[in-house]
Amino acid sequence: MGSTVQDVCIPERFSYAIDQHLVFNYTGVQAWPLVLGIFGRPGDGKSFQVRTHLERRGVLPVSINAADLESDRAGMPGKLVLETYEDAGHRIDEGTPTVLVVDDFDTTVGEWAQSTTTVNHQQVLAQLMHLADSPTRAGDRSLRRVPVIITGNDLSKVYPPLRRPGRMRAFPWLPTTEERAHIVTGILGTMLSPSEISELLGELEEAPIAFFSDLLVEILAESSDAEVRRHAASLPRLILPRSAEREELERVLPTGRLEGAQVKALALHVWHQRMLATQSYVGE
C-alpha cells in the first residue's frame, strides 16, 4: 500500500510554478525574483509536493528548518542562511542542480502579535533581503545564484519588505476541487473509483490533503486488525530478524486494503473523531 515518488499526483499548476522559478533563476534572469514563497493553509501538501517535484526533476534541496533560525548566539541564524546559500551554490558549480528550501518560514520569523522581534530574526530577514537584491555577491565574496523556495501558512506575517515584488514571487496554494481530486487519486486511487473520490471529497470539504495521506495509516490499521491481534502475544519473536512470524508480517502488513464503501465509512469516522479530539474541553 506504500506509495512512491512516481505514484504521487502533483497538480500541474503547482509543479509548473516551481519549474518556472528554477529555469529563470538557473539562467540568471535578473528581473525574476530569487525567492518563491508558497503559502496556504496547513496540511495541503506544500512542503511534500515541493520536495517530491524537486526529486523528480533531479534537483537537490538544501534545507533550513524553522528551528535552525533560532539560536542562543545572536546573529548565528543569519550567518547560517548565507553559509547554506553559499554551499548550495558550490553544489551547482559541481554540476548538481540545487535549491535552498526553508519550510514554515512564517512560524519562526513571522511578525505575530504575541511574538517579539529578536536580533536573530532581524539578521535572517536582512540576509535574505540582501541575497534577494544581490544574489551573486555578499560583501567581497562572489556567489552562485541559487533559487530559494520558502513555505508557510500566512504570507501576511512575513516582513513586508521581503515579500515585495522583485524580491519574492508569492504563490498562494489553495487547491481547486479538481486539483484536490487529482492529488487524492494518487493517494487512494487503488481503492476508490473517481466517482467515489469525488463523493468523499464533497463530504469532507474542510479536510486538508494531509488527512487523506494519514487515512492510509488508518486503512492499514483496520485491514490488519486480525494479524495484529494474532501476533501481539509473540512480540519477543517479532524482534528476531529472521523469525517466521516477522517474515510473515513483513509480507502481509503493507498490503492491507479495504473496499470503497469501507474506505469511505472509515474516512468519515476518523474525521469525526478528529473533530472531537481537537475540541476544547477546558472551560473559558
From TrEMBL:
Signal peptide: none
Coiled-coil features, chain-numbered ranges: none
Every ATPase AAA-type core domain range: 38-170
Record Pfam families: AAA (PF00004)
Similarity comment: Belongs to the RuBisCO activase family.
InterPro entries found in the cross-reference section: ATPase_AAA_core, P-loop_NTPase, RCA-like
Protein name per Swiss-Prot or TrEMBL: ATPase AAA-type core domain-containing protein
